[in-house]
Write a structure and sequence with these properties.
about 300 residues; alpha+beta; TATA-Binding Protein; 3 domains; DNA-binding
DNA sequence: ACCCAGGGGCAAG
DNA sequence: CTTGCCCATGGG
């Protein structure tokens, strides 16, 4: 069986960092999923991965930030203390490259969902269009035309909730050819994000996710609740505002530079690991609740209803 | 019974 | 250009 040498690579961190949802962990610890449109099974080994199924070249292209070039990018990350701490803790985490449409569809499903749920929805979409009785590896991601013709109600039955309307509308726009990912070619990231936002269900955060995880644009900077907390915690100064997305984008561009999307990957994953890592002093193994973020910043939709009538 | 989750869209202010 | 509210679902 083919062994792919990827020194320093952390397969688990890479596939569980919320950048892709196209991989599922198997009982034996290996991962089954899709490198581009190629079904693959990969297993972590010292110094690289075993490719138990699928073409090695597709796996190599998928983990495109491995190797000496990837290492050089890590060395070029900004000398910011928080970034460097996160990098030191998650050095083996690498950027992946997903296909446009599955990435877009997954992140349209991601609104107000924890990462395991997003993965679950992604695979429900695959299995919903599989032949009767079929399972991996025969689970191609349904095309925009397939999703569009299924109808919104069918998507709701898969558990998409209010995201069903968005996904159906976005699939319809793509299926009818009223929009195409080739429009992003050559556009600056900011302008490409604006183009992506014309898709239903794609706002600023998801547009940047798509540009980073499908487009490989290292200056795309997804601003989710985690990133807002992290930046408040580390970068807020008494005088400055640093709350509105525009301010956060501006600060990130100036302070974290052209690799800010990559820096975001490490900050995000590191913070998420800190939250769930079992506390050594906690015998119950529940893990400590959360490090004391100075400003929790509840998402608007979940803000408690005012007690006063 | 709560609480929250890698948001987006829309109507008001 | 901001703020407030709604949108459904599942797991802790």
């Amino acid at each position: 069986m083919p062994f792919l040498s990827l020194p320093g690579f952390d397969l688990d961190a890479t596939l569980d960092a919320g950048q892709t949802f196209a991989w599922e962990r198997r009982a034996d610890g290996s991962w089954q999923g899709f490198a581009g449109d190629q079904p693959c099974i990969v297993a972590a080994r010292p110094g690289g991965v075993d490719v138990l199924h699928g073409p090695v070249d597709a796996v190599r292209r998928y983990f495109f930030h491995t190797g000496p070039e990837g290492e050089r990018l890590l060395d070029a990350l900004p000398p910011d203390p928080a970034v460097q701490r996160a990098l030191a803790a998650c050095r083996g985490l690498r950027l992946i490259q997903d296909p446009w449409w599955p990435c877009t569809a997954s992140f349209i499903c991601s609104s107000l969902k924890p990462i395991p749920h997003i993965r679950q929805l992604h695979w429900r979409l695959r299995r919903a269009w599989a032949a009767p009785g079929a399972d991996f590896p025969d689970l191609p991601f349904p095309s925009p035309a397939q999703v569009a013709s299924a109808g919104e109600q069918a998507l709701r039955r898969l558990g998409l909730g209010f995201r069903a309307r968005h996904l159906h509308a976005a699939a319809s726009v793509l299926a009818e050819g009223r929009w195409d990912f080739s429009r992003l070619q050559g556009l600056p990231t900011e302008e490409a994000a604006r183009q992506l936002r014309s898709l239903p269900g794609v706002g600023d955060k998801i547009a940047h996710c798509i540009l980073l995880y499908a487009g490989g644009r290292l200056d795309a900077f997804p601003l989710d609740v985690w990133m807002i907390r992290i930046m408040q915690r580390h970068y807020r100064k008494p005088g400055r505002r640093l709350r509105r997305p525009a301010d956060l984008h501006r600060f990130a561009a100036r302070h974290l530079g052209p690799l800010r999307g990559l820096a975001q990957l490490y900050l995000f994953h590191h913070a998420r690991m800190e939250k769930t890592r079992p506390d050594q002093d906690d015998k119950s193994g529940q893990g400590k609740a959360i490090s004391p973020w100075s400003a929790p910043l509840l998402p608007p939709g979940n803000r408690p209803r005012s007690a006063v009538a």
